[in-house]
Design brief:
- The protein is built from six helices and eight strands; from the N terminus they run βαβββββαβααβαα.
- The protein is of the alpha+beta class and 210 residues long.
- The protein has one domain: Pnp Oxidase, Chain A, CATH 2.30.110.10.
- Strands 1, 2, 3, 4, 5, 6, 7 and 8 form an eight-stranded antiparallel beta sheet that branches.
- Helix 5 packs antiparallel against helix 6.
- It is elongated.
- The chain starts with 7 loop residues before the first strand and ends with a helix.
- The model has no long low-confidence stretch (mean pLDDT 94).
- It comes from Dyella mobilis.
- This is FMN-binding negative transcriptional regulator.
- Pfam families: FMN_bind_2.
């Protein structure tokens, strides 16, 4: 991806934090008829493995050993030039889009082991059910239904060979413009504007720590 220096994020803890907060990835690979993309949640295991699962009929289930690109995207949003104080002073500003993404490249391993699969399903379910008043667990389903479900899927594991992030969060603007963007997003209060503000504020904190 196009990666200007001011937006390049290489700190592993920051990249991992985005993956854990936004685990739903787009997985791209070269198929027989060209590029194919699939969308699925992953669990980050340690520092170097992504784990997930797909239906047996999915092309990924037949792609053991294939090189893949997994794209994780956080909140994003349109940025109006009207939010920049510098626009009022010079008029020399244009619209843009703020966002944060992490790209992971690696090779796919297809897993058929049912014990491995069930452990993964329990881990994924427990993490995403944790905020529910009465969390659902895999064991709550009838055992024959769980077995049927396990027969219908395969596990996926991506060994991370390269990871990088692009955090385009107005770092190339002066402080007054960044503050104007945060204020504008807060007033607009769109679907993911609060999340985008939080990403920008965290980026400011990390910049101050450097």
């Amino acid at each position: 991806m196009y990666l200007p220096r001011s937006f390049h994020e290489t700190r592993t803890d920051v990249l991992h934090a985005l993956i854990r907060s936004y685990p739903f990835a787009t997985v791209v690979m070269q198929g027989g008829d060209g590029l194919v993309a699939n969308h699925l949640p992953f669990e980050l295991a340690g520092d170097s493995l992504l784990q997930g699962h797909v239906a047996r009929g999915n092309e990924l289930a037949k792609a053991d050993g294939a090189p893949v690109l997994a794209i994780f995207q956080a909140a994003d949003g349109y940025i109006s030039p009207n939010w920049y104080p510098s626009k009022r002073e010079t008029g020399r500003e244009v619209p843009t889009w703020n966002y944060a993404v992490v790209h992971v490249r690696g090779r796919l391993r297809v897993v058929h082991d049912k014990v491995w699969l069930r452990t993964l399903l329990e881990k994924l379910t427990d993490r995403h059910e944790a905020t529910q008043p009465e969390p659902w667990h895999v064991g709550d389903a009838p055992e024959d239904h769980v077995e049927q479900m396990l027969n219908a899927i395969v596990g996926l594991e991506i060994a991370v060979e390269h990871i990088e992030g692009k955090f385009k969060l107005s770092q190339n603007h002066p402080d007054a413009n960044r503050e104007g963007v945060i204020k504008g997003l807060g007033e607009r209060a769109g679907r993911r504007d609060a999340e985008l503000v939080e990403l920008m504020q965290r980026a400011e904190e990390r910049r101050d720590e450097r």
